[in-house]
Automatic annotation (TrEMBL):
Entry protein name: NRCAM protein
Keywords: Disulfide bond, Immunoglobulin domain, Repeat
Gene Ontology annotations for the cellular component aspect, listed alphabetically: neuron projection
Pfam families associated with the record: fn3 (PF00041)
Gene3D superfamilies in the cross-refs: Immunoglobulins
Organism, as annotated: Atlantisia rogersi
Ranges for domain Fibronectin type-III: 5-107, 111-207
């Protein structure tokens, strides 16, 4: 098997899901056989928005021939990763380079996990929601938009409310009685807005 590990391993983080790794080629005489390529082992150490450590699953990408760089796609935003590089010949892999730590920046969050509308009165509705399963960063706020829908399914004026990120419910007041409303709800990080969840609900006709 090869005798030495690739040197000077560098990671360039391109965005929240993609990184580029560079390395110096090993001297050909240390390959001790036919150079087949380089393998990059990489794994997520932890999410920076959640402190949970789960089973660590190592991923391997093989770059054929005498390449000295490769792309690592499909990374999770706002996470800490480690990687190392090994050279491969027909017999197997050489020693691993020292582990290199890198971090991906924040991304936009997934949609809120649920939006539930309860306790209708003449002029109010209660909204409850769950935070995104994948915040992909630090949540800065939630955005609620809503509008009335009339009997011919035409949409009325859209109202927008910004809600602090630590809230999980609110009572929406001063609504029209016996009116159907459509709600659009999404979370935000400093990078931008995540995908939205929609729901409809009706205020009651009379007490």
């Amino acid at each position: 098997v090869p005798m030495v590990a690739p040197g000077n391993v560098q990671v360039h983080v391109i965005n929240s899901t993609l990184a580029k790794v560079h390395w110096d080629p090993v001297p050909l005489k240390t390959v001790r056989g036919h150079l087949q390529g380089y393998k990059v082992y990489y794994w997520k150490v932890q999410s920076l928005s959640r402190r949970s450590r789960r089973h660590i699953e190592k991923k391997i990408l093989t770059f054929r021939g005498n390449k000295t760089f490769g792309m690592l796609p499909g990374l999770e935003p706002y996470s800490s990763y480690k990687l190392n590089v090994r050279v491969v010949n027909g017999k197997g892999e050489g020693p691993a380079s020292p582990d290199k730590v890198f971090r991906t920046p924040e991304g936009v969050p997934s949609s809120p996990s649920f939006l539930k509308i309860t306790n209708p009165t003449l002029d109010s509705l209660t909204l409850e929601w769950g935070s995104p399963t994948h915040p992909n960063g630090v949540l800065t706020s939630y955005i609620l938009k809503f509008q009335p829908i009339n009997n011919t399914h035409e949409l009325g004026p859209l109202v927008e409310i910004r809600i602090p990120a630590n809230e999980s419910s609110m009572i929406l007041k001063n609504l029209n009685y016996s009116t159907r409303y459509k709600f659009y709800f999404h979370a935000q990080t400093s990078v931008g807005s995540g995908s939205q969840i929609t729901e409809e609900a009706v205020t009651i006709m009379d007490e």
